[in-house]
Amino acid sequence: MLTRQGARRLIETEFHRLANIDINFPDHTPINPIVSNPTNLIMAEKTVATLLSKAMEQTPKFSGKPDQDADEWMKNLTDTFRMADMTEAQALKIIPTFLEGHPKQWFTGNSAIFESWSVFKAQFIHTYSSPSSKQLASNRLRTRQQRHDEAAIEYYIDVMKLCKLVDPTMTDASKIDHLYHGLKPSLMKEVFRRAPSTPAEFLEQARQEENLDRLVNTSFQQTNDSDIQATNYSNNSLYRSPQKFATAHYQNSSHMHSKGYSANVYSPRTTYNQFHDPSSSRYPPQTQQSSFSALHYQSRPLRCYLCQKLGHIARDCRSAKNY
Questions:
Q1: Per-residue pLDDT tens for 57-93?
Q2: 133-226 CATH pick, 3.10.450, 1.10.1200, 2.40.50, 3.30.1950
Q3: Which pairs count as long-range contacts for 167-173, CB under 8 Å and 24+ apart, including other chains?
Q4: CA–CA separation, 46 vs 64, rounded Å?
Q5: What is the model's pLDDT at position 322?
Q6: Minimal CA–CA distance to 185: which of 212, 159, 210, 215?
Q7: pTM, whole model, 2 decimals?
């Protein structure tokens, strides 16, 4: 009978036997495992490849113009190559496609000495880096002001880039001073009150104050819009009120006539002759009644205060003769 310990010994013996088997491949052909890529992984790879291709196409070419910064252009191009997972040899082969004008002629004439990407990069910076770029960056840093419609993070990134161009070893205190110098007045008070100690804290506090300022402005604008709408509605109602009352009076009068109450409805008669002279003192001007008063008096039936019956007044009351 095979016990549990006996079965364990058999398994261990078979395992050691299989482990000692040496398999030799005479042709030394490497065996690559077959991996199945799911559909979503393939789609992700295609999307990344498309985005990288567009980024490469949108990279501006370097022409050596005075307004182009060679250091900044080389840094952006290197980052693009790194995102595309491109080797230095591949980058060195395609770099002429990103040059135009005399920089491209310079590369063609000196391609023999560019043994590697690092050699080309050093020669490029040495040839096209402007000696006055630091001075220009310093002037821009002193005069940099945050625009009214410029986000705090956009202003922060530009100032930090200028600080790096002016002095790569600039202290955080100096960077914060430059950030304070051009900050919008609507943000400066609150940020200055919190006294940030690092540029990162400055950015965080400026963004919080910017969001609060935007929220307050949005609420204030909505309140103003509501007030304007209410005022317009009130004015429109005031202008339309005579027409509404006239319409109501017409409908009420038509309703009374349809029920046979036309004789019981008091209708004030005008005292004017249709051919009277308005400038004559003999015919004083008639006071114009409001629409509400006209509606109130024209729609009230006659009631006798002696017999309390409708349709006549006290002087015409037949019941009064019996008293």
A1: 788 889 888 778 888 888 888 888 888 888 888 888 8
A2: 1.10.1200
A3: 172/197, 172/198, 172/199
A4: 35
A5: 56
A6: 210
A7: 0.43
